[in-house]
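User: Hi! I'm a student and our assignment asks us to look at how structure tokens line up with a sequence. Could you show me two examples?

Assistant: Happy to help. In each example below, the sequence comes first and the structure tokens follow. Example one:
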Amino acid sequence: MSKRIFALLISGVILATSVGFQAVQAQVSRDTDAAAKARMKVETLGSNARVDVKLLDGTKLKGQVSAKDQDGFTVTDRKTGASSAVRYSEVSEVKKAGGGLSTKNWIIIGSAIAGAVVTWIIIKPVLCDGGAQTRGPC
């Protein structure tokens, strides 16, 4: 009886330990992914780009990228001229300020409109039957 309880106890400890290590590993992976995405976004936007930066502690910064280095970048507020050094590991999200619609969204919208026009050009003669119908879209 005591061997069975001891075996169950050891199994429980091993199971709990393995689950705990996986959670820690996922946390570290997520943090490095966020830092890599932030670095890539800042590199893509380039110097003097207007950005909105959200930090992991909830702080939001607005301004332009005035300097970049290996570990982070500097955001300068356009109104006050105050500079804030930001490390990539502290960044939750970086996006272009004043975003509006991106190029990708404009392409999707244009494609949808072009598709609707082409569909109408093809479908209208079928529906109108050469002008024989007097109701509907004709």
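Example two works the same way, sequence first and then tokens:
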Amino acid sequence: MLFEIRSRPLFSQWLRCMASMPAPQAPLPKVRLAIISEGINTWPLYVAQAKDFFPKAGVEVDVTLTRSSARQLEALKSGGFDIGFQQCDHVVRAVEHGSDLFMFMALAHAPDLTLVVGPGIRSFSDLRGKTIAVDGAGSGYALLLRRLLAEKGLGVHDYVFAEIGGSRERHDAVRDGEAAASLLNPPFDRSLLEMGCGSLGTVAQYFPEYTGSIAAARRGWAKANESALICFIRGMNAAFSWLRDRRNKQEAIDILRARLDIDPQGAAAAFDQFAQRPWPEIRKNGLQQVIDVVWEAENLAPPKGAPEKYMDLAYLQRAGGVPAPS
């Protein structure tokens, strides 16, 4: 009895302590995100990670760098990843081959890709007989490049597409003379230009309305994980809005340079360009261009799919829609 009397105050104190502790929180839903390569277009992702915008929005995001559009697409279709940052033609092609993939938000404007060429290449005709570095020969911007080369008088047998990998690998191939040209995004294009390589123009110049990179998921996964998907979109939107605020310029540059080998001046110029542009959108006319390119490249049987077959922006709208200019 003496032990019970002396112990009762300690027991009461323990109860009060337990009552004052915060209740354990349920773990956040997890999303497995795959990206093909790194670049300025993935700047909002870097910001979302650095500023914890995903957990603040209610989701945990695991990011995998695949360095291959083909491997990433197969894993995305089979359930190895939940969301993939892809080029829109990948989704169109996958849907036409029976996949339930769909695009739910845009990530970039018309492709900011430069056709960088090595020494001695001054015109499209100089590419005759040369090797051109691409990610996948039958997908991505290689399709646009084939169309551009055809418009410039080069047939499919006048050059060789070498599947070398992501932006960094293609950059190195042109730098080392293994390839005469490649379509490259910043900062890899600027790096080669500073080394003395040339340019035959940009994709945005030749195809200004073409849809840029997008985020895609499987319809079945999205339906079963609607809350996680909406939280993911909100995290990306928060990152984009933060990135467009000029008060965050220096911190944004620091975040970018921690991920990419880019000089401060180049990063500052990229921020200024990024901050003045609106959030990219998936538009029907731009997506129709993509569909036309895929049909031409694949010789698919009619009828040709409408843009709505490959996209669903309802999740984006439930997440708040496209961020308004700051």
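Here is something you could point out in your write-up. The first helix runs from residue 2 to 20.
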